[in-house]
Amino acid sequence: MMSPNSWILGRFMLLCALLAACCSVRAQDSTLAEIKYKEDYDRLQSIIRASDPAKRANQMLAFYKERPDTDARLLTYADNVFDKDLETLMNQENTSVLRDLCARALKLRPKFGEVYLFQGVVLKSEHKIDEAMLCFAKCYMIKNPLQSKAKQQLDIAYRAGNQGSLIGEDKILKRAVQELEK
Hints:
Layout: H1 4-48, H2 53-66, H3 72-91, H4 95-108, H5 113-125, H6 129-141, H7 147-161, H8 169-181
């Protein structure tokens, strides 16, 4: 028969073992997260070394596809690089590459707000004004660094087709919200 003290000591040792196991699991999770962060960071650095913006953007799309669970800080960093590449392609008027990159990016990340601005620019250059306005509206409705530019582009395009008026623009914004919620 066990004495009460040995029973308490046994329970205490079991509790200590469980606590040590939990701490070990957390430490392993933390270590795995650090390893993944470093791998992702290193990969992003190798992508950034590419000098051609189209090639770099394609590599970034591959990164997005393979690492959908990237750390938020690295994702913001990657998005900034991707945005700059899209802007460079837009300034070079390389619409065919820009169109393809935007379409592929939005398939991977349908709420990638900044990309809608560039897609809208492509559509506007193709004289698809209604589709362009919807893209500008989507960019504006998603929190991102290019929201104000998207709103400006939406206003310009809408006024051009509506005798300088913004009356009714709210319908486009509502439609954008509905499509983003799908």
